[in-house]
Structure of Diphthine methyltransferase:
Amino acid sequence: MWSKMEEDSGKLINSVWSRELDLPPSCVEFCPAHPSYFLVGTYNLQKDDVDAHTPEQDAGDDDNKDDVKSQAAKPKKAQSRNGSILVFQLQDDNNIVPIQTEPQPSALLDLHFNPIEGFWDICATVSSTATLAIFKLSPGPEDDKPLKHLNTMDISSLSGGDISASDGSEILFLSVCWHPSRADMLAVTTNTGHVYLVHLPAWDKGWKLLPEPATTHTLEAWTVNLSPYLGPTNSPEEVFFRIFSGGDDSKLRFGTVIWSPSDDHLTETISAVEARGHDAGVTAILPLFVLEDGSELLVTGSYDENIRLFSLAPYGRPKNLVEIGLGGGVWRLKLINLDKTPSPTYNWRARILASCMHAGSRVVDVLQTVDGEHHVRVLGRFEEHKSMNYGSDFHPQRKDSLTAVSTSFYDRLLCLWQLDIA
């Protein structure tokens, strides 16, 4: 039913460009509207906070403990963190040019551009002080600061005062995810184990966080993803979709909800189900597509260093179809392309870029063979990073080869590399 593969399989890739950054990078993404531009978010635990553990002090523990985000999510006291957003341009000759640096009062943990056409230049970021910020990237020939800040709100303001940190504790936003078919909705996760939905009727005002969690974990909620639900609706205004979340409790949770934008009412139509089978925290979730029988295929990453393919039926327990070890905790997954046109060797194939913490980056194929078996194949591995690879992304319009940027935390490295995947 499932198989293990060698962790060191695949072609070893060399960098074509690298640079040390001023602050540790935590996330990176290319802009779909301006594909030669990409953003890097940074996370800095200030060393003048005497009682707080620094990332360097925590680096000797295992993956789950030396992860700076795990430490940030379990503070002994309120810690001082800051960060920045860096704007870079990847030129045709593979030189990377720094364009802009926007200092941030809090450390950034995640950033993503809106996936809806017409809004591809809109980027959401989340921070260590539970703030959500929206930016617009608008490069121009005479503009040396193309990234424009539109608005920022913290969790208390977003929830109308319903949610705030209690004395002696703090709330962090750990990840953010846009709705795949609604430009005005996103989801955020917290170190307190909650997943919240946020409605953005305008980019600069009127934001509302739905105070009732869409789902909850018993430990940190590391990641969230959303996918459209294809069932019937009672009203054209109602939005059906599925929520997937992963937590430090080693659980993948998913359920189906209805959202009414007119009154921001959320109704759970299919109660959340827990998928077991992960041996450590679930840190990455990538929905692929829905099969004819209504089951949805989903890829997960975990601290246990495995990537897994699940089949999620509308009702009942999910099925683990295949898993392999990638040599490091699988922190992020990014879909490169999905081919559902049957070939002589497979029925469908998903090509994925994985950020694998201390193991570096991996390019993998997840596929179903013509015999109906499921396999994961490592195509390439980039291992020049000397510390945690939390972020990787690829140029969205270069089709001759995969052109990717990846980052590592403690050594503050930004690298450019290429892999022929034709």
Q: What stands out?
A: Residues 38 and 301 are 24 Å apart (CA to CA). The two ends are 29 Å apart (CA to CA).
